[in-house]
Specification:
By secondary structure, this protein is mainly α. It has 11 helices and no strands. Helices cover 91% and strands 0% of the residues. It is elongated, with a radius of gyration of 25 Å. The two termini are 33 Å apart.
């Protein structure tokens, strides 16, 4: 991981401002329940229409500032992740050009293509999500717990008890999916290998009338890839409903 982070050194400011604006957005979100509680306890209870209007304007202001903070955070995160991917692709391409013929044969052209395309997109997406959500998610969770204690201690205890369970569910699903995603990458290499072989040897395949065999082989590998991806997708999709049920 440290070897990858060096490609973010030219984007230190973006890597700092992205999470910072996300924390600002989360802070404004955490203020919303307090404003709503004030509207109910003071405005509605006392029939103070002017107070209610002022608080509603504050809510609208919090929403606008939160939206601006979110868009700004997304801009900096996207800029940093895109720059990271660009530099990493350049370095990887230089490394591939320096490989010997035996190393290229051992690794396989399909694997190298996957590393330059699919894996790079995954890393770029991962950096983007990390800059936007790595600090925001725990900040929102613990901040919401603190805000809940300021409103109702008894109800907040239930929320506090749910946090460890949520952590177990989230990290459990992540640990379950990591080896499966490795299988997806391996299967993707096989599909790309067959595709490259067919494109390279298309004349030979046609000369020996092997089209049906190659189509069948491709369909088998492609269906295997589809099965693994669907299986991983089903497991990943369990995270939201389970966390919603626990909350």
């Amino acid at each position: 991981m440290k070897k990858l982070l060096i490609y973010l050194k030219d984007y230190k400011m973006e890597s700092f401002l992205g999470p910072l604006f996300k924390l600002l957005e989360a802070s404004f979100e955490l203020m919303v329940p307090l404003v709503i509680a004030a509207i109910i306890d003071r405005g509605i209870a006392n029939g103070d229409r002017g107070y209610i209007i002022r608080m509603c304007l504050i809510l609208a202001g919090l929403g606008m500032v939160g939206l601006i903070s979110s868009v700004t955070a997304q801009y900096f995160a996207a800029k940093a992740s895109a720059g990271f991917a660009k530099k990493l692709k350049h370095a990887l391409f230089e490394h591939i050009l320096g490989l010997s013929f035996s190393e290229m044969d051992r690794r396989g052209t399909a694997t190298l293509i996957t590393r330059m395309t699919s894996d790079m997109n995954q890393l770029q997406t991962g950096i983007n999500l990390t800059l936007r959500l790595l600090l925001r998610s725990p900040f929102v969770v613990f901040g919401a717990m603190i805000m809940a204690f300021t409103i109702d201690v008894r109800a907040a205890l239930v929320f506090a008890a749910a946090i460890p369970v949520l952590s177990v569910v989230v990290f459990g699903i992540m640990l379950w999916c990591i080896p499966l995603y490795k299988k997806v990458q391996t299967q993707l290499d096989k599909v790309l290998g067959i595709t490259k072989g067919n494109l390279t040897g298309v004349r030979v395949i046609r000369a020996f009338c092997k089209e049906d065999e190659e189509i069948h082989a491709f369909q088998e590998e492609n269906e295997a890839l589809s099965r693994v991806q669907k299986y991983v997708g089903r497991i990943s999709s369990l995270m939201n409903p389970i966390t919603y049920v626990l909350i």
